[in-house]
Amino acid sequence: MSTHFAYPAGRPADRDKTEHGERVDISTVPGARIIQFTVSHPRGDVTLVVVTGEVDLWTAPRLRDKLLRAFGSRGSIMVVDLSPVTFFAAAGLATLIEAQAAAEKADRRMVLITTVRCVDRAIELTGLATNFRRVGSLAAALADPAPGCAAPV
Asked: Does residue 89 sit in helix, strand or coil?
């Protein structure tokens, strides 16, 4: 299952309309910010959410919705693969903090795959590295039996 969202550089409310109110294919708008999600179940107890594109002020709410909905699916572990992310803003950090809290409340474990500098740097510079369980690959996430946070990448 893949979901695409794109936002122009303008306000979210105007993202798919011209100045005359006509709808447009936003993926053709120059400068549009695109985020894509793919959800799968590589193992019975694991939900994998792959995030591709930019996580910023406009796209973070879509990421939040996708992650919180994924907690409703089967499995006790949610793996969030952020390795295809090309930009990661503070709004993305807030979303991950909220998702981690939801995971703990639901007695589930959230593991992040972080292999790109923009994500790792944001997590580390803000002092949030100990808040998340981070690994370098899906294989590492699936092999990791330890609950909790703060695995080195």
From this structure: coil
C-alpha span between 117 and 124 (Å, rounded) = 10
Q: Look up residue 62 and give its amino acid.
A: R
129-117-46 Cα angle (round to 5): 60
Structure tokens belonging to residue 55: 């996580």
Question: pLDDT tens track of the chain, all 153 residues?
Answer: 444 444 444 444 444 444 445 554 545 554 456 899 999 999 888 999 999 999 999 999 999 999 988 887 677 899 999 999 999 999 999 999 999 999 988 888 999 999 999 999 999 999 999 999 999 999 999 997 655 444 444
- Contact 75/46 with Cβ under 8 angstroms? yes
Q: Which pTM was predicted?
A: 0.75
With CA atoms as reference, report the closest residue to 36 among 97, 91, 77, 85.
85
Q: What are the phi and psi torsion angles at 50 (to 5°)?
A: -100, 125
Cα–Cα distance, 147 to 111 (Å, whole number):
9
Gap between the Cα atoms of 132 and 74, Å rounded: 21
